[in-house]
Amino acid sequence: MKTLAALKVLVVEDEALVSMLVEDMLGDLGCEVVGPAAEIEEALRLAGSAEIDAALLDVNLGGRPIFPVADALKARGVPFAFASGYGEAGLTEPHKGSAVLQKPFREADLRRVLEGLAAQVV
Amino acid sequence: MTVLEADARAATEEIFDLRRRLAEAQQAHAEEVRRNQAFSRIAAAIGAHQSLSETVQAVIDGGVELIGAQFGAFFYNVIDRAGESYMLYGLAGAPDEAFANFPMPRKTAIFAPTFDGAGVVRSDDVLADPRYGKNTPNQGMPEGHLPVRSYLAAPVKTADGLVLGGLFFGHREPARFDSRAETVIMGLAAQAAVAIEWNRAGEAGDRELTERRRAEERLKFALDSGRLGSWELDVETRAYDASDICRSNYGRGPDQDFGFDDLVATIHASDRDRMLAAMDEAIRTGGEYDIEYRVVIPSGETRWVHARGRAAVRDEPLIGGGVRRMAGVSLDVTERKRAEERQRLLLNELNHRVKNTLVTVQSMAAQTLRAASDLPAFREAFEARLIALSQTHNLLTEQNWESASLREIVDAELEAFGGRERLDFDYARDLRLNPKATVAVGMAVHELATNAAKYGALSTPGGRVSIAWSTEPASPETSARLRLRWTESGGPPVPPPTRRGFGARLLEKGLAGELSGVVRLAYDQSGLVCAMTLPLAALEP
């Protein structure tokens, strides 16, 4: 269990304006942003080796699904949430039930989701 | 004359008489044989299942021959909409013209027993018959009628009493038809009735058969036009019969074996249980069978089939808790399913875009608010950014959201700042950008132009902006890339900003990060310079 303060959050988001918003919100919440990664390869690299406590994943990364990154995080035991305009409907079967941040979202929504993730951090 | 002589004469006369009687008996016998032969010949002709007119003619000809009549006629009933009417006739012993100019016989006193089916009318002299000449307008035979004295008429009616018509025979001399002739004609009339009834039943059967064939052809045409296959299943034996189109829906040719087991095996493993359950339900309840399922045809391709069916005989009672037969249609709905899938993906894609755009707008609002000194300044900057974003969407919409051209992006975003007059740009060349790069580059150009209009070259009358670009092919060290340089000149000197605003952040961090490139801002004495180096792989549609 960790607090949001100094929580290291990997952000995977391919649209500059959106990642700027997320960065600002995370900054306001006291979190430390890792990334943002705009490409799958970069995201996979960070998910596999960077020092992170949690991750926020855009489901669709330039037309490519994010799920390999989710699998890598799962393998490492890093809690994560998907950010998606589809809601849970956009998730593939093995990932249904994962935390989802429905776009667009308020800072309070992001805080709630992150607190859920922080609770899983051991 | 002696006694002997008298005896001899008597004996002789007796012998003569015996001979004469013998000859008479032989003649009568021969006549009987001839008549019987004629009757069986005629009966055979009548019963030969010919056309109606041929049968009628055989009846009249036979009647004339058998009773020695001069004329014979058969008027047969054809019921028209007005009621009774004796429209058709056959003749013997007289040409067709003999009756052609007369109206059809009506149910006059003399004809009524015949047409009502009451019985035979035989008259040795019809002119003396009390029933003759009782009706207007002719009061007897019309002028020019065949000269008839002996008259014999019999109704032709079926076993259950339906009068089919009347047989009429005549002779110009009186007393020609005896009771024997009457018996013959009654027999003939009975034969005729059977033959005509048979003929009518045959025609009705033919009509029904033709009608059924036509209906079947119509059905087949309708099924074929709609690419509908038809099938039938014997529920007990599981015998399955499928039309050619139905077989083709399951990837089978007309000559290939395709039984119920083949059908079930062709259905996609994930849909098979659902299909069998739906069929069992329909069989058990006699209800509708209506299902869409995937089939894996022998070529390995997966297609979609819509099958419908129900108990083959709707009123057939349920037996043993189920129907006996099912019949139905099948339709290949692969194209529709694919269209639905495309539609679903399109809707999801649209939803994704709309939601992303909303977040983009949310981000723009938040960023603009952070930098704005007051609400009017926020409103001005925010609206300008919203319109810049909208311009890029317009360009993409024109191209089916596939791409936009660099030239159009530059034109659209600089239009609000004096456009081409103060811009040095090579309009002869162009580069197509994918949707994501279009929005990113469009917003970047907007931020540069806004900054130039506020603080840079476009803030003074003499200032100019140059946009120069080139592409570089891949080298061993780098991938193919676009170099784009925004250079301001003729404006006031630009000092580096004390804090990085939204524009600078979007360019140096956002654009560079999003498109995996490098963006540098240089605050030169002669004006701002923005140098972008972006990999073509991230830009190209």
TrEMBL record, chain A:
The modification 4-aspartylphosphate is found at residue 58. SUPFAM superfamilies: CheY-like. Keywords: Phosphoprotein. Pfam families: Response_reg. Residues 8-118 form the Response regulatory domain. Coiled coil: none annotated. The keyword Phosphoprotein applies. GO terms for biological process: phosphorelay signal transduction system. It comes from the Bacteria. PROSITE patterns: RESPONSE_REGULATORY. This is Response regulator. It comes from Caulobacter zeae.
